[in-house]
Amino acid sequence: MKIMEYEQMDKQIIQGVGGKENIKSVIHCATRLRFVLYDESKADDKKIENIPGILQLVKHAGQYQIVIGGHIEDVYNKLIDMLDFDDVSNNSYNPQKLSKKQSSVDKLIETVTGILSPAIPLLAGAGMGKVLLLVLNLMGVLSSKGQTYIMLNLIFDTGYYFMPAFIGFSAAKVFKTNQILGAFIGLVTVNPNWVAMVAAGKPIHFLGLPIDLVSYSSTFIPAILSVWAMSYIEKIVKRVTPDVIKVFAEPMLIILFTAPLTFLIIGPVANLISKGIANGSMFLYNSVGMIAIPILAGLYPWLVSMGVHKALSPISIQLLISKGYDPIVRVAALCSNMSQAAANLAVGLKTKNKKLRSLALSSSATAYLGGITEPAMFGVNLKLKKPMYGAMIGGAVAGIFAGFMKMKAFVYVTPGLLSLPMWVSKTENFILPAIMTIVVSSLVTFVATWLIGFEDPVDDPDLKFEKNNANKQTNAKQTLKSPVEGKVIALSKVNDKTFSSGIMGKGIAVIPNSGKVIAPTDGKVVASFATGHAIGIHLDNNADLLIHIGIDTAELKGKYF
């Protein structure tokens, strides 16, 4: 797509959601725009779904989600330019703006995922950088004692080590508080002096109160809770601080109250929550992992379709931070992603619709290589419905295999062929099991999708007859009479491109004098429509004939016929 196309799409999107004045906030994830609207009833769902380039519309948990695919970044950037919000905070996710009908769980999930979403690309990039460095070391290209290795390791380590700062900055945007102070609160917990105190292990007190020696590097829950508390502290400080000293007094007081509160209470509590998430997930994995992974893999596409798969991101990230690996969420995502790709491959090879074939095969390649499945899912599988069942079967079977192989992911990144190094660590290598899982998922899904089949779509219902008989050969000429009395005109003059372009084949058009239509010659009726507006006849010379009465008469639903 080009810039002009993005502009045109964004103009239509803004109109479709009810105009700029109806937009409370908008953010984006890997493939979709996530709007929070003042009045969702003002949005025109059909208009949105008919915009070229829009794959799907999803409404969930107070968000109006428009699935676009790989061009999301460009579409979003141009959209923000057009919206021209007066305050950058308007362009942020705000949990307080969500529908009051949301449950507390929905609000919590949306808040956490809204905070983590901006940081996920950084975590994926830094994580894959560390894995690439490891692979180069194992291949003997770089020595772990060499300065190049040490410098690259330092660079990529920064992405995870200083996660509290990135999360603090992102959380401050969500909670409508000062983002620089949000990052500061995150950085306080990874200050080198604090790290040294934790390493020393000597008791520390503040105002006589003991402080738990907790390492906060590579964490995100403490930063989220601390900045949330800071947002309320800031409001109180702003109310009581005299204007004459606001410039220095406000940030000083906010820091003075928030930072000690973080070390004394919020940090230790958040640390317990973090450990609880990781240990609870591992308990379930060790108890019912062989069942849980295939179930999750089978249901994963539906979670993606509703946009709630992001709720699993905190679990996956916490497992990677606490345990060093994720044996659950990323594994299920691999099985699901590859099954979506394989279902598209089956559709692409089986369909006789050229447009669908092109879309399915290109979407399959995108899903296989990068693990981006929204184009495959929304553009093909969900629309045809039955390929989704094939993908669920293949994903579940692959989940059984992956669970048996005890696979582990060591980086938070979308699973695909290009991200295979995510299955390698210094002590373990699951690349071969990952490849085998991809093969299992692909084979089972492909066969299931092929056998289950699907209704091969066409551009117009009347094309079904023509396409189903396109390969038949006629044996001899056959004279036809006009099926209706009236004036004969060239087919090219008909105000319907389906016929005037000749895509249906050669023919004539008749402006009728009466409403009686008769068979033009001998033959067998092989296609009819409940609406009565068209009929297909197989002639004695093996040719096929379509008689179509009127333009857009299918919309009459049989009335007058």
Automatic annotation (TrEMBL):
Q: Which NCBIfam families match?
A: PTS-II-ABC-beta (TIGR01995)
Residues forming the PTS EIIA type-1 domain are 496-561
Taking the first listed entry, what is the main subcellular location of this protein, grouped into a coarse class?
membrane
Under which name does UniProt file this protein? Beta-glucosides PTS, EIIBCA
State its location(s).
Cell membrane
Gene Ontology, cellular component aspect: plasma membrane
According to its UniProt entry, this protein's organism is: Companilactobacillus paralimentarius DSM 13238 = JCM 10415
Q: Which Gene3D superfamilies match?
A: Glucose Permease (Domain IIA) (2.70.70.10), Glucose permease domain IIB (3.30.1360.60)
Where does the chain cross the membrane?
A: 108-129, 149-169, 181-201, 213-233, 253-270, 282-303, 389-410, 430-454
The PTS EIIB type-1 domain is annotated at 7-89
